[in-house]
Amino acid sequence: MGAQLRVYKRRIQAVTATKKITKAMEMIAASRIVKAQRKVAASQPYATELTRAVTAVATGSDANHPLTTEVETPTRAAVLLITSDRGLAGGYSSNAIKAAERLRERLAAEGKEVDTYIVGRKGVAYYGFRERKVADSWTGFTDNPAYSDAKRVAAPLIEAIQKETAEGGVDELHIVFTEFVSMMTQNAVDARMLPLSLDEAAEESTRKGEILPLFEFEPSAEDVLDALLPRYVESRIYNALLQAAASEHAARRRAMKSATDNAGDLIKSLSRLANAARQAEITQEISEIVGGASALADATAGSDK
Hints:
There is one protein chain. The protein is of the alpha/beta class. The chain folds into two domains: 2-22 and 259-296; 25-257, Pyruvate Kinase, Chain: A, domain 1 (3-Layer(aba) Sandwich), CATH 3.40.1380. It contains six helices and five strands. It has helices spanning 2-59, 92-109, 121-129, 147-162, 198-207, 221-304, and strands at residues 76-82, 113-119, 136-138, 172-180, 186-194. The protein has a five-stranded mixed sheet with strand order 3-2-1-4-5, sandwiched between helices. A hairpin with a 5-residue loop joins β4 (172-180) and β5 (186-194). The longest helix is centred in the last third of the chain and has 84 residues, at 221-304. The mean pLDDT is 86.
């Protein structure tokens, strides 16, 4: 019985140590969420105004440009998938991967070839294990992305959208990331970055009561759009990276809180079992003492006779 009690004590010590680790990870993730939220809020106005400027330029001109002009029969699309570099974040990366798979199937059903670009080790590992082709990938910055990381990711995508499909280019550019809604809600979403849907952008401006400005272009609308293209793509990717980072920290905090709570429940359960084992051991010892005393009393009574 003593051996069983020692086993319970060792398990309680191990679970307690694990609980301390998960609690620390929960607190770290919670502190990082606040910083990530601030970055998302700071990047949003720039991305919004840049989209508004592109919409205004495109609406006020008849320029044929990859930023705004849709191909009549698109045949190839690029999909940028944003996952995490680290685990212990619940279903964060798997949900983003599932959303990317659904998008790929939808694009394939429309007759489009899909070139996949991936951010994060989890996505790279998923596609690598299944021996799926990846056009390019980036790792090492998902939990704290900088604008320079967004520029690195955007460069090959901008190059692909500017090329003809016959030369390895693409007609559309899509992005799959996890949108940060609140501390408890994060949704894996997909969005088409290019060509920019002018109707949707105009409707958004109308909904907000905004009037798109009219511009005169120097030297031309095409040159203005050429200058705006990299900045637009970079800002959209940067905003998506920041939202994904905030979502990753929120998912990790939630997963670690669940692990901490489960560890607490397990410690209570093991403590009850240890107490029961200790009580059984004490009861057995008392029974042995009583039995020994009774035997001694019987032996003494027999000798007196």
